[in-house]
Design brief:
This is Phosphatase PAP2 family protein. It is a multi-pass membrane protein. InterPro entries: PAP2/HPO, PAP2/HPO_sf. Keywords: Cell membrane, Hydrolase, Membrane, Transmembrane, Transmembrane helix. This protein is mostly helical. It has a domain of about 190 residues. Helix 9 runs antiparallel to helix 11. It is globular and about 60 Å long. The N terminus is likely disordered.
């Protein structure tokens, strides 16, 4: 007979909340230097190109936007599925099972998500950059999915969300060995870049929108980890008596994903739905047995 601990390790081999907690405790404020330098470099570049004005900001990216949009839209099904991972409901649904096995990740995710929401909403209102569909002729580029033509292009909300969540995962599951760390870091960054540039592929954003959005998302993820480490605001997440809150949240996500499937019958939504069903079952099972 396998013991309970052996069974758990067999089923969930590399997810240990204590390891995630230790990784977050190693967090250093120096991690903010690189993304802040990148944002500074982008601002300097825009200033030198006289592109701090909205119309110039759009014009200097016009040909790059057309090139990327044309190239990426050739893989329309893949791009349209991947771009959904910038939707917080979809991403959190896929990660819902971590509530049971690595609640420290969810603690950081809550703080990071709140920070990213503040950044996204405030910056979009400040910059009011028109979307590509509001500027360019619709016949000159490819639009996949819903046509977005508002004045809220900068920064890309999907890019902020994607990098916020990936950053929390990046540092939460950081390996111990240096070579593994480098490989893990490269894989997460590449995945993040693929996800954010799908926003250009579907015709929703300019290239700098997603680069800036991704950088802000990275900072949001770091801030989420930092806030959680310093103030321990969400330690109740691992307490089973509060599971009904997450059962309700997962149920809302379930309804939202069903609605998305009815509107856009995409494979990624079925994956998210499956993850939610498993998480709901396990969470309810653990709560009832507490």
């Amino acid at each position: 007979m396998l013991t309970k601990s052996v069974k758990n390790n067999f089923l969930i081999p590399n997810i240990k909340n204590v390891d995630v907690k230790d990784n977050y405790l190693k967090f250093r404020c120096s991690l903010f230097i690189v993304p802040l330098l990148l944002l500074t470099g982008i601002i300097i570049f825009l200033y030198k190109e006289n592109a701090l004005r909205v119309d110039h900001y759009i014009q200097i990216q016009k040909y790059c936007f057309y090139f990327l949009n044309t190239s990426l839209s050739q893989f329309s099904t893949v791009v349209f599925n991947l771009t959904q991972l910038g939707d917080e409901i979809v991403m959190l649904s896929l990660l819902s099972v971590l509530l049971l096995y690595a609640p420290k990740v969810w603690e950081a995710l809550i703080s990071a998500s709140l920070v990213s929401c503040i950044f996204c909403c405030s910056l979009k209102k400040i910059f009011t950059v028109p979307r590509p569909a509001a500027v360019f002729d619709h016949h000159t580029f490819v639009i996949i999915g819903k046509t977005l033509n508002g004045h809220n292009s900068l920064p890309s909300g999907h890019s902020i969300t994607a990098f916020t969540i990936l950053t929390v995962l990046l540092f939460g599951f950081m390996p111990e060995k240096l070579n593994d760390k480098i490989l893990w870091y490269i894989l997460i960054i590449i995945l993040g870049l693929i996800l954010i540039f799908t926003r250009v592929g579907v015709g929703a954003h300019y290239p700098l929108d997603v680069i800036i959005g991704g950088t802000i998302g990275y900072i949001s993820g770091l801030l989420g980890i930092f806030i959680n480490k310093k103030y321990n605001l969400w330690t109740w997440v691992s307490n089973k008596k509060y599971y009904p809150i997450f059962i309700l949240f997962f149920s809302i996500c379930f309804i939202s994903i069903i609605t998305k499937i009815m509107n856009e019958n995409l494979f990624i939504f079925y994956v998210a739905l499956t993850s939610l069903i498993i998480s709901l079952y396990k969470t309810i099972h653990v709560y009832v047995k507490k």
